[in-house]
Design goal:
This protein is of the alpha/beta class and 140 residues long. It has one domain: Roll (CBS-domain). It contains seven helices and seven strands, in the order H-E-E-H-E-E-H-H-E-H-E-E-H-H. Strands 1-7-6-5 form a four-stranded mixed β-sheet. Strands 2-3-4 form a three-stranded mixed β-sheet. The radius of gyration is 15 Å and the shape is globular. The termini are far apart. The relative contact order is 0.21. It comes from Streptomyces roseochromogenus subsp. oscitans DS 12.976. This is CBS domain-containing protein. InterPro entries: CBS_dom, CBS_dom_sf, Diverse_CBS-Domain.
Length: 140
C-alpha cells in the first residue's frame, strides 16, 4: 500500500495567521512553494488554513488591496483539509477530488510533516488515473 507519507514533500513551512501577505509571498519565493499552511496564534502547530500564491493575487492584489497590510488570516477560509500520514494514496485522491484542492497537508501524531501536491500525485498515478484526477479537481 502506498501511503500519503510515501508520496508527500517532507517538511513544512508555516506562516502565522498575523503575518502579512507580502511576507507569505516572500516565503513562497524563497522556498519555491505555491502554498503555506497558516498557523493559529494560540498554537503554532495547529493549522487554521492554507494561503496560496493564487489567493494573494486573486483575493488581494486583483482587488487593489495592499499585501503589506492584509494578513494571512484575512484570507483563510473554511475548514482546513488534511490527511493522516498512514492513509492510502486513494484516500488522499478522494479528499483532493471531493474538495477540489490541489495541495493536501499530511499529518502524523497531530503534527504536519509534509504536503501532497499535484506533482506528487502525478508521479504515482498511471496516465489514465492522472487524467481522471485532473478532471475531478478542475471540474467547474
Amino acid at each position: 500500500m502506498t501511503t500519503a507519507k510515501d508520496i508527500m514533500h517532507p517538511g513544512a513551512q508555516w506562516i502565522p495567521r498575523y503575518e502579512t501577505l507580502d511576507r507569505a509571498a516572500q516565503m513562497m519565493r524563497d522556498h519555491g512553494l505555491g502554498a503555506l499552511p497558516v498557523s493559529d496564534p494560540d498554537n503554532k502547530d495547529r493549522m487554521c488554513g492554507i494561503i496560496t500564491d493564487r489567493d494573494i493575487v486573486v483575493k488581494c492584489v486583483a482587488y487593489g488591496h495592499d499585501p503589506a497590510q492584509m494578513t494571512c488570516g484575512d484570507l483563510c477560509e473554511g475548514t482546513p483539509r488534511w490527511i493522516d500520514a498512514g492513509s492510502d494514496i486513494s484516500e488522499a485522491l478522494r479528499e483532493m477530488e471531493s474538495h477540489q484542492i490541489k495541495r493536501l497537508p499530511v499529518v502524523e501524531n497531530k503534527r504536519m510533516i509534509g504536503m501532497i501536491s499535484e506533482t506528487d500525485i502525478a508521479r504515482h498515478l498511471s496516465d489514465d488515473q492522472l487524467a481522471e484526477f485532473v478532471q475531478r479537481v478542475y471540474a467547474a
